[in-house]
Design a protein that fits this description.
- The protein has about 400 residues and is of the alpha/beta class.
- It has 2 domains: about 130 residues, Aspartate Aminotransferase, domain 1 (Alpha-Beta Complex); about 250 residues, Type I PLP-dependent aspartate aminotransferase-like (Major domain) (Aspartate Aminotransferase, domain 2), CATH 3.40.640.
- It has 14 helices and 17 strands.
- The strands form 5 sheets. It has a 7-stranded mixed β-sheet, sandwiched between helices. A 4-stranded antiparallel β-sheet has the order 13-14-17-16, covered by helices on one side. A two-stranded antiparallel sheet has the order 1-2.
- Strand 7, helix 7 and strand 8 form a beta-alpha-beta unit.
- Helix 2 runs antiparallel to helix 10, helix 3 packs across helix 10 and helix 4 runs parallel beside helix 5.
- It starts with 5 loop residues before the first helix and ends with a helix.
- Bound molecules: ligand C6P.
- The site of ligand C6P has 16 residues, from helix 4.
Length: about 400
């Protein structure tokens, strides 16, 4: 059942109307990698370059002031979107990956010491693993992992046991980019806080797909990327609690992040500029603001409901393929991602054949190698859904997968 007019929404996305080959329309099922962009986002960036382009926070001329005010207006929209207290808690970064590295290199380097425990999970994207590996190597920290159960959920019993060991940080993905599992973030954060840990949520796959409120979650840091939420590439956000951000040293040094520079020292700027060194992605911030307006106009609850319906239908229909195995099929709470294997067929072959039928999916380890190791497979195929996908596209996927299995029979 659709709760909004998906055909009308599709018309807002110029790319979706195309054929990948003559007579083969595009079926885009790879929004978990990056989402398509509506015309309002493309136009906002185009318009910025045609009418406004100037550097921000530096000039006093008309264009500089206009660019600055549009850049800052986008920050306010983003703050409201995630229910943050203050726009200065929104730090523009390049993406989720940079946001997590910022926390590791600034907060982690300053506040963690030898032997300290960080709790992560087995379902993390490399972006929420490698920054901590790097820091752990440097500072001799301990990393422990909440296991993933047979059902594709986090093992809360082991989590409780790990909490008894006094972690300094609990960092986890709100929604898995492989399993689609939506983790009980509020509960994970609540328990972490009781144990005295700082908390970080990787919101790369949650913020684009359902309503996320940092106040409700009670978390300390939230990282996400514009490009997965119908916005441009090259810009993301680290939201952090003001008191934590204030206590952290700058991450990158250079222009705009300083209040004063002497030959041998500097005084850092106020938030959020302390963490925004150099000329930022101005057009992208403005495009991000337009993306937020677009998502708000559709309604995050409507988007979540639509995706839920699509993924439930896909899960039922995929059962008609006996050799197909869904990863984490039984997770109770899941978003619009389905990763699967087809017995005896390599995921890259699956993706290549689907491409012949216009269907774009992702094949590989999806930047979650340890999770694939856990399942004892090197790779999987992944279809993912967003607000512009349709039931007809789900049907096309399932029918084409039947053809794939027949080809290899
Ligand atoms: N996952 C996928 O196809 P960046 O690249 O920094 O915008 O996002 C990184 C990232 C972090 N966490 C999660 C849960 C993610 O899914 C991603 C990006 C894409 O699954 C590209 S690998």
């Amino acid at each position: 059942m659709t709760f909004f007019n998906v055909e009308k929404i599709r018309k807002e996305f110029p790319i979706l109307g195309q054929e990948v080959r003559s007579g083969v329309p595009l079926v885009y099922l790879d929004s978990t990698a990056t989402a398509q962009k509506p015309a309002v986002v493309i136009d906002a960036m185009d318009n910025y370059y045609r009418t406004t382009n100037a550097n921000i926070h530096r000039g006093v001329h008309y264009l500089a002031e206009k660019a600055t005010s549009e850049y800052e207006a986008a920050r306010l929209k983003i703050a409201n979107f995630i229910n943050a207290n203050k726009p200065r808690e929104i730090i523009y970064t390049r993406n989720t990956t940079e946001s997590i590295n910022l926390v590791a290199q600034s907060w982690g380097r300053s506040f963690l010491k030898q032997g300290d425990l960080i709790i992560l999970t087995e379902m993390e994207h490399h972006s929420n693993l490698v920054p901590w590996h790097m820091l752990a190597q440097e500072k001799d920290l301990r990393l422990e992992f909440i296991p993933v159960t047979e059902d594709g959920e986090l093992d809360q019993v082991v989590y409780d046991r790990l909490l008894d060991e006094g972690p300094k940080l609990v960092a986890f993905s709100h929604m898995s980019n492989v399993l689609g599992t939506i983790n009980p973030a509020q509960e994970i954060v609540r328990k972490a806080k009781l144990a005295g840990a700082v908390t970080l949520i990787d919101g790369a796959q949650s913020v684009p797909h359902f309503d996320v409120s940092v106040k409700e979650l009670g978390v300390d840091f939230l990282a996400f990327s514009a490009h997965k939420m119908v916005g441009p590439t090259g810009i993301g956000v680290l939201w952090g609690r003001e008191e934590l951000l204030n206590a952290m040293p700058p991450f990158l040094g250079g222009g705009d992040m300083i209040k004063k520079v002497l030959l041998r020292s500097f005084i850092p700027n106020e938030l959020p500029y302390k963490f925004e060194a150099g000329t930022p992605a101005i057009a992208e911030a403005i495009g991000f603001g337009a993306a937020i307006d677009f998502l708000n106009s559709v309604g995050m609850d409507n988007i979540a409901t639509h995706e839920h319906a699509l993924v439930q239908s896909a899960l039922i229909k995929l059962k008609t393929i006996p050799s197909l195995q869904v990863l984490g099929e039984n997770a109770v709470n899941r978003g619009g991602v389905v990763s699967f294997t087809l017995a005896g067929i390599h995921p890259h072959d699956v993706a290549q054949i689907l491409d012949q039928y216009g269907i774009a999916i992702r094949a590989g380890h999806h930047c979650a190698m340890p999770l694939h190791d856990k399942y004892g497979i090197p790779a999987s195929s992944r279809a993912s859904f967003y607000l512009y996908n349709t039931e007809a596209e789900v049907d096309h996927l399932v029918e084409t997968l039947h053809k794939v299995t027949e080809m290899f029979a």
